[in-house]
């Protein structure tokens, strides 16, 4: 891939993310103004976000780059069982570690409609919408464009650093929190990249990403140093240790989560190395 086309692809990837996000927000605002309940427009918004991203990526790959989607780790939608298992185990492991620490369960009185809105927000907006969209763009279009120009290492690291950076833009974080978010965000990006490369499919990384969002930042049970007013229940930690709590960003950037990202990354890297070894031996 020529340098100009690769740079264009990077810009287009971020542009698609912004366009799909704005379109999703506008549609949900219109549905809200029309009196549609929040739980329903959260479902619509989540699927719309993912569908728009897929259509935009498909058009760009086939019409502009003149390549098949499979060349960008976007085959037919299919998830390997092993990554579905990892998708469930990783957030459960991280949550379990924190639930063993001193803390208190706290709830805010909410009616059924608000609870439904919080849960659907976590499942469909954070899980389906963000999980699928970000994987299509970062681990699909962007990562593979960089790989085609500069190789696998750059393809894994560059989108991961960009992915981490987007999580601190516009946030009034302290310097320490910014550093911790950059480290954690880059590591989770590397993890998703290796998962996508292992099976040559962003759908594997999307299931891990989506389920993580549903459990860790969804509207069911959230874990942190304060009550989350957008959650049905909060587990409020007594500890204020910066590395353990994740600072201002929360437990997604904590040392516990980073250990989880590294463990899964090493497993995915081992699988990739093993598969390459098999190809060498049979060639």
List its salient traits:
283 residues, mainly alpha, three-stranded mixed β-sheet, 9 helices, 72% helix, globular
| SS-derived structural category | mainly alpha
Task: Please give the number of β-strands.
Answer: 3
What count of helical segments does DSSP give?
9
Topology as a string of helices (H) and strands (E)? HHHEHHHHEEHH
Shape: globular
Unreliable stretches covering 5 or more consecutive residues: none
**Which value, in Å, is the CA radius of gyration?**
19 Å
**Distance between the first and last residues' Cα:** 27 Å
Strand order of the largest sheet: 1-3-2
How much helical structure, as a percent, in the residues? over 70%
Could you tell me the mean pLDDT?
A: 94
How would you sum up the major sheet?
3 strands, mixed
Strand fraction band? Answer: under 5%
Structure explained in plain terms:
The protein is mainly α and 283 residues long. Helices cover 72% and strands 5% of the residues. It contains 9 helices and 3 strands. Strands 1-3-2 form a 3-stranded mixed sheet, covered by helices on one side. α4 (112-150) runs antiparallel to α5 (152-166). The longest helix has 39 residues, at 112-150. The radius of gyration is 19 Å and the shape is globular. The mean pLDDT is 94.
């Amino acid at each position: 891939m020529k340098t100009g086309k690769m740079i264009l692809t990077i810009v287009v990837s971020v542009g698609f993310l912004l366009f799909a996000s704005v379109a999703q927000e506008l549609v949900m605002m219109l549905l809200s103004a029309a009196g549609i309940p929040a739980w329903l427009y959260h479902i619509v918004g989540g699927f719309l976000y993912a569908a728009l991203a897929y259509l935009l990526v498909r058009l760009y790959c086939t019409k502009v780059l003149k390549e098949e989607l499979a060349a960008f780790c976007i085959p037919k939608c299919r998830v390997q069982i092993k990554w579905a298992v990892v998708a469930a185990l990783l957030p459960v492991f991280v949550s379990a570690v924190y639930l063993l620490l001193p803390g208190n369960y706290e709830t805010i009185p909410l009616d059924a409609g608000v609870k439904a809105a919080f849960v659907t927000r976590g499942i469909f907006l954070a899980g389906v919408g963000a999980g699928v969209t970000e994987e299509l763009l970062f681990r699909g279009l962007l990562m593979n464009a960089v790989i085609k120009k500069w190789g696998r290492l750059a393809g894994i690291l560059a989108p991961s650093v960009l992915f981490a950076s987007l999580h601190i833009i516009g946030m009034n974080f302290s310097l320490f929190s910014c550093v911790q978010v950059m480290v954690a965000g880059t590591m989770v990006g590397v993890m998703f990249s290796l998962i996508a490369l292992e099976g040559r499919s962003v759908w594997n990384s999307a299931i891990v990403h989506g389920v993580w969002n549903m459990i860790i930042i969804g509207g069911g049970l959230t874990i942190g140093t304060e009550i989350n007013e957008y959650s049905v229940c909060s587990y409020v930690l007594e500890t204020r240790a910066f590395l353990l709590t994740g600072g201002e960003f929360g437990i997604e950037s904590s040392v516990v989560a980073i250990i989880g990202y590294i463990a899964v990354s090493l497993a995915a890297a081992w699988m990739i190395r093993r598969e390459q070894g098999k190809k060498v031996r049979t060639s």
